[in-house]
Amino acid sequence: MTFGRTIKSIGFMTLMALIYISMQMQIVSLAYQGKSQEKHIQQLIEDNNNVTYDIMVMKSANHIGSHLLAADPSLDFASEAAVIEIAAPVVEVQSIEEMSSSSKKATFFSRLIALASSEAEARMLR
Tens digits of per-residue pLDDT, 8-33? Predict the structure, then answer.
């Protein structure tokens, strides 16, 4: 009986060792798959950055202008002599205090605006 028990225990130990080795091989295999996926993701990120850069270059005014000028040579940029500068009119804006003082009767809405636009005062507590 001792010989039979020894064979059973050796068989059990061998089976456990094979299961352990199988699990370790699966772990290593998953690690390699993870690394290959990381490399693939890095490659996709680099491709995305390259495509984004190319799109930005194509959207740039310089690229669009040179492309239009190459397509139709009769087009030309405006010279400095053809550009006219116009001064914008100055518009006076009344502050909320001036508006509320000019009107005799303060409405609820004007009080609410004055309250919202007033500056907060911070005081130190002792």
Answer: 999 999 999 999 999 999 999 999 99
Residue position matching structure tokens 């190459």: 70
- Relative orientation angle of helices 2-59 and 61-71, to the nearest 10 degrees: 60
What letter does residue 96 receive in the DSSP assignment?
A: H
Residue type at 93 in one-letter notation: V
User: What single-letter DSSP state applies at residue 74?
Assistant: T
Q: Which residues contact 76 (CB under 8 A, 6 or more apart)?
A: 69
pTM of the model: 0.43
Q: Which of 83, 115, 68 is nearest to 96 (CA)?
A: 115
How far, in Å, CA of 66 to CA of 70, rounded?
A: 6
Taking the C-alpha atoms of residue 116 and residue 100, their distance in angstroms, rounded to an integer, is 14
Integer CA distances (angstroms), 13 to 19, 76, 88, 90, in order: 10, 87, 92, 94
